[in-house]
Amino acid sequence: MKENPRKPYYGYRINKYIAAALAGGGVISIALAITFTILGYSTWVLIMCWALGAILLIFGVLWHLSLSFASDAEKIQQVQNSFDEQLRAVWDGKGTVLDIGTGLGRVAIEIGKQFPESEVIGVDTWTKFWRLWGMTKAGAERNAMMEKVSDRCTFQYGNALNLPFKDGEFQLVVSTFTFHEIHVPDRTALFKEVVRVLAPGGRFMICDAFRSGYKVRNVAELLKKIEQMGVEDMKYKTFREVGLNFGALTHMIARGAYLSGRKIKRS
Length: 267
Ligand SMILES: C[S@@+](CC[C@H](N)C(=O)[O-])C[C@H]1O[C@@H](n2cnc3c(N)ncnc32)[C@H](O)[C@@H]1O
What we know:
Layout: H1 14-39, H2 43-67, H3 73-90, E1 95-100, H4 106-114, E2 118-124, H5 128-132, H6 137-146, E3 153-157, E4 170-176, H7 188-197, E5 198-208, H8 219-227, E6 231-238, H9 251-255, E7 257-263
Helix pairs in contact: 1-2
This protein binds S-adenosylmethionine.
């Protein structure tokens, strides 16, 4: 296939449209409320229009404040730069890499670009829901071609809970903003799969919010649980600690962290 001259895009344009639709609906409803007040409509109609207008407007503004960073290419680049910095601190750049929940391939492709000795596979379920948010396999492949790494960066269907790989296949496993989207009684099952597909001595770095869904009381307990799977040299750094902060309303950025570790080599 020919390289595409357009720029790659890793964001969620739909967020902008949802915020605009909510706020627009709010403004229309308030405009109707004013018109109906002038025309002397019944109190119930006026209350409904004002209430609907206020609710839509508030949700539109909140949506914009909390999620607009995800459609802003500059902010996405800041998130990516921060990830690169953390990864460089724990990984030597050599070997086969797995990116779980790769979406449009942002992290997989960046690793391919930054580490010329790496081979990266991005897996995702790309379900109907996520396709609505722009996450598609074709999109990831297109981005890899535009970034000229499609020879070392490939994509395939795969579920994080049952990865389609043999034990010990990867030197690095990464995942960003995906684990919190997977609804299972205990998300530590995701870490079991990560450790299973890692080669002994291999590294993982997961970037997500870890405060719920892991059947633990706190982060220290979570780290202990993962350690018991045969992991050492664990590090947990919040986004705030590494200087990533887009405001309290941006849930994932406000509560997110990097969790990394190394699979123990058994002698
Ligand atoms: C918020 S997006 C993150 C995409 C990408 N990692 C990034 O940071 O730009 C979450 C991704 O997780 C994927 N996903 C959700 N459940 C999954 C599962 N069980 N296994 C693999 N991927 C999954 C979705 O399809 C979506 O692409």
